[in-house]
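Deliverable D5.2: sample structural annotation.
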Amino acid sequence: MDKVVASAGRAVADVGDRASLAVGGFGLSGVPNVLIKALHEQGTTGLSVVSNNCGALDSGLAVLLTAGRIARVTGSYIGTNKEFARQYLAGEIEVEMIPQGTLAERLRAGGAGIPAFYTPAGVGTQVADGGLPWRYDGTGGVALASPPKEVRVFDGVEYVLERGIRTDFALVRAAKGDRHGNLVFNKSSRNFNPLAAMAGRVTIAEVEELVEPGVLEPDQVHLPGIFVQRVIELSPAQAADKGIERRTISAPPARRTVSN
């Protein structure tokens, strides 16, 4: 039952070339940076990644993306990642863009053993009708487009069929975890992390604080250890290394002069 692995390198050692990964995080929040860096250091390439976005600034999945290690991305947000946009438009990477809520439910469904579900999101658009560019040819043309999906009517409303997602591995980051793999996420880092963890056949979690079994109250646990196969404990420096994507500072209020 002790799922703790000595290092990030050992935890990802069997993640081979062309593996599929579900990766938690949103922007800079809740991103398993240490595990991603370990993958980069071991040279894994040709990865198919399922994640809300593909890294921000020079962190997270952007490390693998910039190194040319990612072949395909299933996500919902490109954002300000200029290298992600460049590779996509240049035809260097295949990208399946789907609505954010649909992505979350596809991960959850896959982890729950649900092969597919119907949703109204995307009906009447290329999400359902097909034709979304998955890969460009580098000259502005579309080399590969999304296929049409099944649409059915329930109680007079159209719904599109979406498939659940399962991946070979999942990488997530938690605020706390015990040796059995039970995880607790802190505030906004509880975004795609539990869903990504559910979708992975082998889920690896980096935790900022490792506690012994029984310390976490059952009602505190956001993700039960049944979904987690490996845990690594971050060093205090790794746990504290958290970036800020956009720092906004308000100007101090003008000082008022009071005359006698």
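Annotation notes: The chain is about 20% helix and 25% strand. The longest strand covers residues 167-178.
The annotation will be released with the project's public dataset once the embargo ends.
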